[in-house]
Amino acid sequence: MGKKWSQQLAGVLACLLLLTGCLETALVGAGATGAMAGYKWMEGTMIRDYPRSLAEMDQAVQNVAKYYRIKITERKVTPMKASLLGVDQNGDDVKINMEALPNNITSVGIRVGGFMGNKEASQLFHNQLAKEIGL
């Protein structure tokens, strides 16, 4: 399966090269597509990359937190990172970290709950976040 996937990716890159005539554009396009493909679950935090600026994602995260009635207890924003701490309706801690990446991509990590995190709740938040930004 891995070899077939690699061959398909190589085919897509070759098509992009033919269409664009520019290696840089083809690689950026392929990288952005791969970045948006799915979620990573790391140490209780679910991470996904979104094709939006940090400012757009910060506002979308606040909107989704309001949608889920998460009481925000702390919010920090710098030019390259943003974070939000809160408590959901069940009394579980919610921790959201955002990091600006190249090419107007923002990585968003969500942890709902304690030590191991709540994978399902984090997934629901990401699903609503994707809807919020129109994905």
Give a summary of the structure in a few sentences.
Helices cover 44% and strands 30% of the residues. With 135 residues, it is an alpha+beta fold.
Relevant terms:
alpha+beta, 4 helices, TATA-Binding Protein, 135 residues
Task: Explain the overall architecture.
- The protein is of the alpha+beta class and 135 residues long.
- The chain folds into 2 domains: 1-35; 39-132, TATA-Binding Protein.
- 44% of the residues lie in helices and 30% in strands.
- It is built from 4 helices and 6 strands.
- The protein has helices spanning 2-20, 23-35, 54-67, 119-132; strands at 40-42, 45-50, 71-77, 81-87, 93-101, 105-112.
- It has a 6-stranded antiparallel beta sheet.
- Helix 1 (2-20) crosses helix 2 and helix 3 packs across helix 4 (119-132).
- It is globular and about 40 Å long.
- The chain starts with a helix and ends with a helix.
- Residues 15-37 have low confidence and may be disordered.
